Amino acid sequence: MKRYLSFAFVILLAIGCPSGSLAQDKVVKKIIETGTTDNRTMEHADFLANVIGGRLIGSAALTEAEAWVKEQFESWGLEVMVQEAGEINVGFNRGPWFGRMLSEDGMMLHFGTPAYTAGTRGKQAGRVLIEPKTRRDLDRMKGVLKGAWVLLDAESNGMAIDGSDKANEARAEVIAKNEEIDRQNNEIRRWNFEHRDEAPREMLKYETATALFYQEMVDAGVAGFIRSAKVPLQVLYDRPNCFDITMDRLPKTCDILLDEAQFKVIREKVLRKDIFQLEFDIRNHFYRGPVKYHNVIGILRGSKYPKEYVMAGGHLDAYDIGCGAVDDGNGTSVTMEAARLLATSGAKPKRTILFCIWTGEEFGLLGSKFFVENKTVPLDRISNYFNRDGGPLMATGVSVPDAMYDDFVEVCKPLAGLNPDIPFTVSRREGPPQPRPTRAGGSDHAYFAMNGVPTISFRETDPKGYDFDYREIWHTERDIFNKLIPEYMEHSAVVTAVVLYGIANLDHLLSRQGLYKE
User: Fold this and answer.
1) Is 334 helix (H, G, I), strand (E, B) or coil?
2) What is the DSSP letter of 146?
3) Which helix (H) or strand (E) holds 407?
4) Is residue 191 in a domain?
5) What percent of the chain is modeled with pLDDT above 70?
6) What's this model's pTM, rounded to 2 decimal places?
């Protein structure tokens, strides 16, 4: 048998077979075989979404998820780099939440609260008021504000109400303008009364701001503020203040985003002066920091060009109104499975492959920005970074500049038979090169692209028509495990592994010619 293999090897060399191609073909075959018969993408996704859950910066869940990813990478034989990307003063963990309307026509309430906002002190019931719009309104109702739930006219955008000093200064300017408008309106009322036989003058409109008398109402002891929110509820965090919160200066007033249909019913009951109360039980918990957050990067070291890189990644952090299954448990799970398939296939790529599980994407691309700005690896030595942070769709093709086309055609040849019904296609990018971006975009590829790194990503489609709607889950309560599409994600993990390996084994870095407009 040994003599036969040696003879075959000599023949292959004689006809020009590149050295190492047999081993490479064997690795690719193993990747596809394992990815077809023992694909574990959904096991990773299940653990992230259903065992750990929403993974917000500063939460125990994100800390646990980081440790778990590191453990998985190590168990597959990868080197691991854990990169501290930052810290937050105070940690936040979300517990259960509950609410109901106490009345003869009572109902359970459908709502959420932005992260890093206050919970209740057990069950809290109170009357409901509509926010004051003028100083006169505030003076009229100041005696009943304590313990009340206040309806705000501002529709929710998912973020917490900004209670910072800067925001309150802006409110004070609006209040001052409105007081002058109020004085002028009083004069108009008087004129209209005195000139009843003439066409009335129009009243001036007041300027608006979210929770105009915010600080005054907080100081009066309101239980919380309630805003109308579209369904599915998009619930985010306290962006202006979360990094400045300290344990001796925690938020104390609830910030509730309520189903718009229920908000309308409740507002009408207040206007009719119905007698009823709302009761909430919200378990939003804070804990002592600082709480650090980290990138977790699996490394498959290159055998020939260890200081040249091919990269793939997704972000580990996720909002906690859902469980972060799609955004971005999807990208994390596909990247992790690509890492496992390569690590367990005996792959020894020429270039180093980095499997990047980023942190802090939802708080401003914090992890990938840190990686790039700290020059973790030489940016001109990165062949390509593949980012996955969209829907749980199928990688069915790739569109590349002319200078990359032949390389991608060669690299993607093994994918021809992966799914004959849905062929993987390589196409030339249409149109002229676009300028290199100058501002960060919406996902972790952004800082790489801003620095001229190729960030070609796979074309992701829904070829079987599962009617996935990214807007339904994006940062909403519906970002849950059953929104994932297993066959698409499993297929994409195999595609990612094969393409990463192929690019890592080219005898050159991918050309950047025509990638960006110079």
Assistant:
1) helix
2) T
3) helix 402-411
4) yes
5) 96
6) 0.92
Same structural domain, 128 and 256:
yes
Please report, for residues 14, 161, 168, 171, the alpha-carbon distance to residue 209 in angstroms, rounded to integers and kept in the order given: 79, 11, 10, 7
Please compute the mean of the pLDDT values over residues 199-226 and round it to a whole number: 95
* Helices 486-504 & 21-37 angle (0-180, nearest 10): 170
- Give the pLDDT confidence of 70-128 residue by residue, as tens digits: 999 999 999 999 999 999 999 999 999 999 999 999 999 999 999 999 999 999 999 99
Handedness of CA 445, 450, 453, 457 (dihedral sign): positive
Q: How far apart are CA 255 and CA 227, in angstroms?
A: 8
Yes or no: say if 328 and 399 are a contact pair by the CB < 8 Å rule: no
Q: Which domain holds residue 498?
A: 23-88+291-517
Range 16-30 average pLDDT: 71
Residue 401 DSSP label: -
Tell me the C-alpha distance between 45 and 230, whole Å. 28
Tell me phi and psi for residue 125, to 5 degrees: -110, 145
Beta-bridged to residue 226, according to DSSP, are 151, 256
Arithmetic mean of pLDDT over the chain: 94
Residues 61 and 75: their CA atoms lie apart, in Å, by 21
Q: What single DSSP character describes residue 240?
A: T
Q: In this structure, are residues 221 and 129 in contact, taking their beta carbons and an 8 Å threshold?
A: no
Specify the length of the chain in residues: 518
Structure tokens at 154: 């501002």
CATH of the domain at 271: 3.50.30
Q: Is the pLDDT of residue 1 over 80?
A: no
Half-sphere exposure of 404 (CA within 13 A, CB side): 27
CA distance 488 to 13: 39
Tens of pLDDT along 198-212?
999 999 998 999 999
Cα–Cα dist 221/132, whole Å: 15
Helices and strands: H and E segment counts in the chain: 14, 16
Q: What pLDDT is stored for residue 307 in this prediction?
A: 98
Question: Measured between alpha carbons, how far is 227 from 218 in angstroms, rounded to an integer?
Answer: 16
Residue 12 confidence (pLDDT): 34
Is the alpha carbon torsion for 335, 340, 342, 348 positive or negative? positive
Task: Let me know if residue 122 belongs to a domain.
Answer: yes
Sheet with 394-400, edge to edge strand ranges? 425-428, 394-400, 459-461
Adjacent-strand bridge partners of 98? 281
Number of domains in the chain: 2
Same structural domain for residues 306 and 186? Answer: no
| 7 domain-assigned | no
